Amino acid sequence: MKAIMCKTFSSVSDLSWEEAPDPVAGPKEIVIDVKAAGLNYPDNLIVRGLYQFKPNLPFSPGHEGSGLVSSVGKDVKNFMVGDSVAFFKGFGAFAEKIVVPTALAFKIPESFPHHIAGGVFMVYGTSFHALVQRAKISSKDNVLILGAAGGVGLAAVDIAKAFGARVVAAVSSKEKALVCSKYGVDDVVIYGEKKLSVDGQKSFTKELKSKSGGSGFSIIYDPLGDCYSEPALRSIQWGGTYLVVGFAAGKIPSFPANLMLLKGCSVSGVFIGRFQKEEPEQSSKNMLDIGEMVSKGRLSPHITEIIPMRDAVGAIERIAKRGVVGKVVFVNN
Question: 2-112+302-331, what's its fold?
Answer without folding.
Answer: Quinone Oxidoreductase; Chain A, domain 1 (3.90.180)
